[in-house]
Amino acid sequence: MSKEGDNTIKCQCHDESGEIVPCYDNVSCNCYWINQKMRSFQEKRNNCSYTEFSSFKPILFTGTHSHFYRHVGFACSELCGCKGNCTNNALLLPNKRLFPIEVFRNNEILGFGVRTLSMIPAGTPVMEFTGEIVGDQLTPGAHWDNGDYAYQISYRDDEQLRNLIKKLNFKPEYEKLIVKLSQKKYYIDPKVQGNVGRMACHSCASNLEWVRVFQKSLSPAHVHLVMVSMVNITAGTPLTIDYGATYTKQRFDSNCMCGSFACLNGPDAATYSKAMTLKLSMCHKTLYDAQIKEWRQVIKPAPVESNNEANNENNLPEIVEITEKS
Ligand SMILES: [Zn+2]
Ligand SMILES: [Zn+2]
Ligand SMILES: [Zn+2]
């Protein structure tokens, strides 16, 4: 049904020269129009710009309150005139798999983890979390084994998404169906089919966060879960996600072993358990600065072929800092 007429969301934008098509900020692009409508889900904050879901700008969050419902984007796809090769496609970079990722295991108790082998700036959509879409048969108790890995993608609280669905030109029976489906619990379950995204370990001070990017339509089947870096991540750092207090309680019986500075089972738990996201970000920044300092000491730049010896001191590689807009 999603493939019939107006039930598919796509645009006609194209560029004969084969250049990247400027769908983003183009008010006559259907896909951008929906992407921009989703921006209204975000909390209005003074002096703070909204979170943007484009192909090349960093995804920087405006706040942490109901973050998962509020930060949602819509991307162009291969069905569009631009074929997704445009500025309105937050899935363009993650699909290119730009960052070399290594799977590792520290010890027998902890499972596998993944770490980056290159630097990842804050706000980068690093990779997609893929798997099978499963319905609410996956409730705690029934198949909680899979529940360990699965991530919920549709929620009763997605009221703003349902309001948007009702404003679009979907066929009445399709609209009714996706409104109904969006109220049910659907999960992305990577246990049988999936990618390395599932190997990102839990951390009480994680460096990645999940966001939803829709493509082609607005049912739970059209959701892509994208893992975005919240801080600058240096090479060699494990990629981590905060699975939440409920998960750590059930899974580790409150004996979390993430080893992060803010671990709820660590020596500084009392200090950090009530720490606000801002404070955690400041700690991440301090950590990052220390890592960069160490990196500068360890990694010596290759000698530059230049006759001007005095110039060599200034040849340290440039590191571009991303600053948060808030
Ligand atoms: Zn377009
Ligand atoms: Zn496009
Ligand atoms: Zn499009």
UniProtKB/TrEMBL annotation:
Skewed-composition ranges (Low complexity): 305-315
Disordered, as annotated region: 305-326
Pfam families given in the database record: SET
Superkingdom per UniProt: Eukaryota
Domain (SET): residue spans on this chain: 99-244
Listed InterPro entries: Class_V-like_SAM-MTase, SET_dom, SET_dom_sf
PANTHER family noted in UniProt: HISTONE-LYSINE N-METHYLTRANSFERASE SET-6 (PTHR47250), SET DOMAIN-CONTAINING PROTEIN (PTHR47250:SF2)
Protein name per Swiss-Prot or TrEMBL: SET domain-containing protein
Annotated organism of origin: Caenorhabditis remanei
